[in-house]
Specification:
Helices cover 50% and strands 17% of the residues. The chain is of the alpha/beta class and 208 residues long. The protein has a 5-stranded mixed β-sheet.
């Protein structure tokens, strides 16, 4: 069935429920978007950004890819961040990974996965850089979860080094980058204590 009728029926029910609760919701939403937050997260279907933080449509600008990577040659991600910072004037960038990430797991495996190996090289670089810490963790699941956390920290630094972010800080624009991780097994967010609001704080993170 080409039209996927169940999904269209779900959509009709969802839109009707929204209108019952707030008759002007879609009319107001159509006028503009003015989110305060940019969410950079994983493409994993179990990590729905708006639902996790309890925000309705229009409150969260979202970019997702495998393993929530921020790569300086990725024009998609660069464009999203520039638009969010320069046009939408968002005040918070949230980099959110999740425990048990399949992309991180694949990067840790000593075998080929095809085309995606080129993307996962960035995670393997983090793994090599932090190998001493990771090898001290005896449990394989523990190593995976720690690399998921370390990946978030690295991507926070990568966001901070983006031209659009650096220029915003130079101009005094309020902009903070946060590093979080999500537990699929319990639905809870964890703040990794990585919060950067200036070029000086970014240097401290990178030196730490």
């Amino acid at each position: 069935m080409k039209v996927l009728p169940q999904l269209f029926e779900n959509n009709r029910r969802w839109a009707a429920d929204i209108v019952r609760a707030d008759p002007a919701f879609f009319e107001n939403l159509a006028r503009q978007q003015a989110p305060e937050y940019l969410w950079i997260g994983c493409s994993d279907s179990r990590v729905p950004a708006n639902a996790i933080v309890g925000l309705p449509p229009g409150e969260l600008f979202v970019h997702r890819n495998v393993a929530n990577l921020v790569i300086h040659t990725d024009m998609n991600c660069l464009s999203v961040v520039q638009f969010a910072v320069e046009v939408l004037k968002i005040e918070h960038v949230i980099v959110c990974g999740h425990y048990g990430c399949g992309g991180i797991r694949a990067a840790m495996e000593n075998r080929s996965h095809g085309l995606i190996d080129n993307w996962l090289r960035h995670i393997r670089d983090i793994q090599r850089k932090r190998m001493d810490e990771l090898t001290r963790i005896a449990d394989e699941g523990g190593r995976l979860d720690r690399l998921c956390e370390l990946n978030v920290v690295e991507q926070v630094a990568n966001v901070g080094n983006m031209t659009a972010v650096q220029e915003a800080w130079q101009q005094g624009q309020p902009l903070t980058i946060h590093g979080w991780i999500y537990g699929i097994s319990n639905g809870r967010l964890k703040d990794l204590g990585v919060c950067v609001s200036s070029a000086a704080e970014l240097r401290m993170l990178e030196d730490g």
